[in-house]
Write a structure and sequence with these properties.
The chain has about 270 residues and is an alpha/beta fold. Helix content is about 35%, strand content about 20%. The chain is built from ten helices and ten strands. The strands form two sheets. An eight-stranded mixed sheet has the order 3-6-7-5-8-4-9-10, with helices on both faces. α3 crosses α4. About 10% of the residues have low confidence. One of its GO terms (molecular function) is kinase activity. InterPro entries: Bact_polysacc_biosynth/exp, P-loop_NTPase, Wzc-like_C. Keywords: ATP-binding, Kinase, Nucleotide-binding, Transferase. This is CpsD/CapB family tyrosine-protein kinase.
């Protein structure tokens, strides 16, 4: 955990102009605007929240610790994903799984953080699992000013964005389940939102954490709006028949690959 603290402190030193509010503060939000200036990113109006390191560790968010052998696996995944997306000029990525409890949200967060460590890119992680949103919970973010509030027209869109104290990383979180989720995900308002997120910054990678593919029709309805997909499966839990069915449903889309999660195999770490 000390190494994670050091990593975040180093990131903050690189961006001293960030205005911060304490985590779990429900009343002191800022509207969000990312303004690149001279190669640096300054969150002039962005709501910034300091993360709880112990909570991150308990939630298996490990990518901030570059010396953690398991974080190297996400950095390798990041490089492979970015290479394919860059080659095809893709900027939107959906992450889903065949069934619940495969770890897709943890993979989404760790991959987004790994991408944000690349100075050439910014990462936006959107919690589009409208039936069971967990991104904000895993990161320990305040539960106010969410995607749900924006969709209900209670707040402006920029007010729903959060920077968790990490440069080049923004989260569009949600905390409450949303009814008629399939209809919401395919609505003109959400389609316009996705296009805006994609086109707002040239070097932004947008990751959408979606519901399990075989549990609802939310994911298969939303996926035509993104450029490519990652499928997360759980070692010893996901059935071969489920993977086969997912590949069949995704055959008309750009499936980047399958992430084998929850493996007992330990990383060997750096080789010299």
């Amino acid at each position: 955990m000390e190494r994670i603290k050091e990593a975040i402190a180093k990131a903050k030193e690189q961006n001293p102009d960030i205005e911060r509010i304490p985590s779990k503060s429900p009343t002191t939000s800022k509207t969000a605007t990312i303004v690149p200036e001279s190669g640096d990113i300054k969150y002039q109006q962005t709501r910034v929240v300091d993360l709880d390191m112990k909570h991150l560790e308990e939630s298996r968010i490990i990518t901030l610790d570059s010396e953690d052998p398991n974080s190297i696996s996400f950095d390798i995944l990041r490089t492979q994903v970015l290479a394919k997306m860059e080659a095809n000029n893709w900027r939107t990525l959906a992450i889903t799984s065949p069934t619940p409890e495969c770890g897709k949200t943890v993979v989404s967060i760790n991959l987004a953080l790994s991408i944000a460590k690349q100075t050439d890119y910014t990462a936006l992680l959107a919690d589009f699992d409208l039936r069971r949103p967990r991104v904000g919970v895993y990161l320990g973010l305040p539960d106010n000013n969410t995607l749900s509030d924006y969709l209900d027209e209670k707040i402006e869109f920029n007010d729903a964005l959060v920077n968790p104290g990490i440069p080049r990383f923004v989260v569009l979180q949600n905390h409450d389940a949303i009814r008629k989720s399939t209809e919401i995900l395919t609505s003109p308002k959400v389609k316009s939102l996705v296009m805006d997120l994609r086109d707002r910054y040239e070097k932004r990678i947008c990751i959408f954490d979606l519901p399990p593919l075989l549990s609802t029709d939310d994911s298969i309805a939303f996926i035509p709006q993104v450029d490519c997909i990652l499928l997360v499966v759980a070692s010893g839990e996901t059935k071969k028949s489920d993977v086969t069915e997912c590949r069949r449903q995704l055959q008309a889309h750009n499936l980047l690959g399958v992430v084998f999660n929850k493996s007992d195999e330990k990383s060997a770490g750096y080789y010299y």
